[in-house]
Amino acid sequence: LLFPVSNLCGKCKPRDTNLLQPSLNFLYCSLHQTTPCSQQRAVAVLLSNVSLLELLQKVLECTWLRSPPSEPAYLSSEDALLCSGWLLVASLLLYQHRYNTEVHQTLSLDLTKVLNAVIFRKKKPILLLVSIMQFLRAVLRQNFSSSLLVIVGQNTAQGATQPQPSSLQDAALHPLASQQVFSLVVSLQNLLVHKDLLLSQAVVTCLETLVEYLYVKNQDVALHVASQPWHRFLLFTLLSGGQKPFLQPEVLRLMTLFLRYQSSNIISQKEISQVLQEAAEANLAELPEATSRALHLFLCQV
């Protein structure tokens, strides 16, 4: 089925939402819900389809052209298609890297526009933000070096052959700029305050990957980001209300992140003791899988 569905997608235009939406979702599910052996073949089939990749390029570019709906939570058919496109491309990046699959057509994206889609949200639906963050996480994990993706920045988009870093710090973080990093961190912090479960999971995952990327590139910047005083206020906001607030998966993962990068000004011995106390009183067998996994990582970090 991958052959006819992917060929069908390649013959469509980005406006054919009724046909493209289920088709891209089928391709996405085919990648994720199959055996590793079949998964490798599925990735090869999709990456060999040049018309499909050209269609995905056009779909992603529609993100910058969308007109914000009156309600930020409203998900139009066009936004739903964008979500499917970003999620599928993020998956293709992940599996192409895992299996070192041959690429027949590259995708080109302006990194500044991708970052600004998260930094300047402009009434974007939550699911679209989550989808873009999944893509951002994929490119961060691959150090912006995927053979499937060509990243262009503001300077290259204007015709320069090579971006000119404004400082040594920016040179170390290339293709990111330090100002983009700090703006993105503030935006992720603000998104966490919404306390939406799906959004919180995506934000924490993106923040973890971002700090890991920064730590490899420039440890001083990574430690500076991880020790921002605003994180402590954010932690208190997430802990307000609810039963056993310290056993929320996103709270545990945030605290693990702060512990990993030794942000003693964010998390103290008191918070660590409270986590241990709540864990001791909880029925561990009844904890949700996400909570169990987050608690395990927290305890290992401690």
From TrEMBL:
InterPro entries, A to Z: Immune_Signaling-Apoptosis_Reg (IPR052133)
Gene encoding the protein: Mei1
Entry superkingdom: Eukaryota
Parts forming coiled coils: none
Name of the protein: MEI1 protein
Natural source organism: Uria aalge (Common mure)
GO BP term, pick one: meiosis I
Lineage, top ranks: Eukaryota, Metazoa, Chordata, Craniata, Vertebrata
